[in-house]
Amino acid sequence: MAPETALLSMSGITKSFPGVRALDGVDLDVQAGEVHCLLGQNGAGKSTLIKVLAGAHQPDGGGIHWRGEPVTLRSPIAAMRLGIATIYQELDLVEHLTVAENVHLGHEPTAAGFVVRAKAARAATAALLKRLGHPEIDPARPVGELSAAQQQIVSMARALSHDVRLIVMDEPSAALDPDEVDNLFRIVGDLTADGVAVVYISHRLEEIRRIGDRVTVLKDGRAVAGGLPAKTTPTRDVVALMTGRTVEYVFPERPARTPETEPVLQVRGLARDGEFAPFDLDLRPGEIVGLAGLVGSGRSEILETVYGARRPTAGEVVVDGRRLRTGSVRAAVRAGIGLAPEERKAQALLMLESVTRNVSVSSLSRFSRGGWIDRRGERGAARAATRELSLRPDNPDVPVRTLSGGNQQKAVLARWLLRGCRVLLLDEPTRGVDVGARAELYAVVRRLADEGLAVLLVSSEVPEVLGLADRVLVLREGRVVHTAPAQELDEHRVLDLVMEGSPAS
Amino acid sequence: MTQHVSPPRDTAGPTPPARLPVWRGLPARADLRTLSLLGVLAALVVIGGVTKPDEFLDTRNLQLVLTQASVIGVVTVGMTFVITSGGIDLSVGAIVALASVWATTVATQEFGFAGILFTAVAVGLGCGLVNGLLVAYGGMVPFIATLAMLASARGLALQITDGKTQIVTVDGILNLGERDSYVLGVPPLVLVFAIVTILGWLLLNRTTFGRRTVAVGGNAEAARLAGIDVRRQRLYLYLLSGLCCGIAAFLLIVLSGSGQNTNGNLYELDAIAAAIIGGTLLSGGRGTVTGSVLGVLIFTTITNIFALNNLQSDVQQIAKGAIIVAAVLVQRRTASTT
After folding, report:
1. Which residues contact A51 (CB under 8 A, 6 or more apart)?
2. CATH assignment, B53-332
3. Between chains, do A329 and B223 touch, taking CB under 8 Å as contact?
4. Could you tell me which residues come within 8 angstroms of residue B25 by beta carbon, excluding any fewer than 6 positions away?
5. Which of A42, A292, B144, B256 is the most exposed place for a label (fewest CB within 10 A)?
């Protein structure tokens, strides 16, 4: 029997950017009706590969065959015409336009060639949304008013509004809650049953087990393994292929119980109407406390309110026995609180600036006299702080945007290390950080705690909270439903609490 | 017993006492963009020298070019800071007009030299304060807040003068424009411009104020979460722009020996254009005083060459527009290859 012709076949794809060989001869075969998972650490070339596939990047070499015919994808429109749709991780929707307008952007149903038939567009959109299991989304609503999960559905509806044969999904589950992930998987199942192929990118191995058919693993711009069976390849092997190592999550050891010291941070009855109920916390030096909860459970809001970035409706934050002015980031920073926010690029980094300047920005007064900056002192101190965290490359003059996700996070941590902060708030510290770099980041956080830092950690990845924190507070709908030492909890128990909210006692 | 007193050790770590000299980093930053601007300027000088060899390279003409560049140049330095912070100040021309007429009323002139200087600077700072308060604490979009200031300040300037030119009779002012007050052949106005440029460069590149400006422009939310008082910084920036307008108004009074409500017409566009072709990002986060000043010199030199060759101002305007487009295109090209 002749081998079935692949729907898509990319062979020997190369692509270089100034100074980087992003793709170094990648092969990828995708069959109709399969879920083909693309795995790889950050910087492995996944994004570049899917941009080539979407027509957004032109490859330097190699060939693409579509249904056996050689094709060139000159532009995103060319790819779309063939039936290739891409749902990017950063959603590319126009906030002020309605759902229906976004779905039909660029190919609006028209009368007489230019008059938009808005009603027809809305009806078609409603049908698509129903097919995607979200009939509650109103096609006439502006996209900016929707939740992240709903926006993702809209993005998917847009992909399906074309006659699509292949959908690329770049980490579609990153911003979703478990029940929404279930819906996503149901949609993927429906699509493949119709013969549509899905290229699915995710960091989460368990998802790939659930829905994947085959796996291609990228590392350093090469496909190190192609077409592995997704369900049966041992995790150990996959991780080994991705990292060149045979480790999964490695968490640092917890120290023997720290002596009972005075708490450095005390939160008393802190609340924000509509976001979270009165919240209490004592945080001691050397302690890591984790907040576990779903998206929307109030975890990030609590963190930002403690930090003063949001103004509480009640309650107080006390550092070293002194009450902070609420709703003031400057007061929090002065008192020794630091925040590594969830959206590193949008909320923490100055992307045009060097590592040094990103690290020193919160401590400028330390390196200046009368406003005049001692640049040598600044650079030296920034270098000392980044070296302590083994930030790579070991050159504080490089622009921060050239660093990997893990090293960018280290730059943010170095900022607070340099500032000499005593309470560190970590919001999703390993988002966008690849598996190999995570273990290192965990070790850094634990070491900082051992040196006397108090850490409050928020993460949507339960294993991370359980592995890193000493004590875990489980949140549901803005309320702490359970508090326990991390050793006494396991992932299932936490997920039960998070979703069912069974009473703590 | 002899006591050996060891010098106290700095526990913070081995920090070499030597500071970086101020100019270190200057060659590194004389990047492609600055070099290309210098190249354009050099080309213009060659064109001027070839087309009008006697007139253009004459000392008096060069002094004139630099003097003309001084007024708009000082305004552009202030504008560079505002744009670097992600803002915009459309009111600079109107503030120059208001400051120049307020400083030349009969009542002000009674206080002589000091009265005129003080009034010009105070009016500039006052307008900057209003802009800054509206933008930083009133939450207004800079474009709108400064557009409102543009309209009001021009209106007020017209009201004060009733459309008449106010002649300056204070000798100290008039003498400053005379040739005998030139310092080693350099007109005092050009000296002021040079001093403002140097101070502006130092402020942007060597001080916490400059760092905060860049941080606010690069990512205001990140700056806020890093503990920077973003609103106060914005207030200071519009104050700085107002101060520069006040100084420019004073220079204009010296230059023209008068105050008029039509002064500073379209300065906002010239200053923005000079800053942008100099390499300051309109979206904020990157700014260069050196580039802005080169941009001003390029525009002024073009105007001069055109005037010497008897070309009308309509042609000048077209050439200016073409240069802005060309400069930005070249910058995009160089930015994408680096």
Report:
1. A57
2. 1.10.3470
3. no
4. A375, B205
5. B144
Task: Please judge whether A376 and B211 are an interchain contact, meaning their C-beta atoms are less than 8 angstroms apart.
Answer: no
For the complex shown, is ipTM > 0.95? no
CA R_g for chain B: 22
Test the B interface: residue of A304, A352, A400 with most B CBs within 10 Å? A352
Model confidence, pTM: 0.77
pLDDT by residue for chain A (505 residues), tens only, comes to 345 678 999 999 998 876 567 888 899 999 999 999 988 766 678 888 999 999 988 999 999 999 989 999 998 888 988 999 988 876 678 888 899 988 888 777 777 777 778 888 899 999 999 988 888 899 999 998 888 778 888 988 988 888 899 999 988 877 777 778 888 899 899 889 989 999 998 767 778 888 899 999 888 788 888 888 888 887 767 767 776 644 456 788 888 766 678 999 999 999 999 889 999 999 999 999 999 987 678 899 999 999 999 999 999 999 999 999 999 999 999 999 999 998 898 899 999 899 999 999 999 988 899 999 999 999 999 999 999 998 988 999 999 988 888 899 999 999 999 999 999 999 999 887 776 788 889 999 999 999 999 999 998 778 889 999 999 999 988 999 999 999 899 877 887 787 665 444 3
- Domain extents for chain B? 53-332
Q: Find, among A13, A10, A26, A28, the residue nearest to A60 by Cα.
A: A13
- Using CA atoms, how far residue A258 sits from A422, B95, B202, in Å, is 16, 63, 49
Q: Does B286 touch chain A (CB under 8 A)?
A: yes
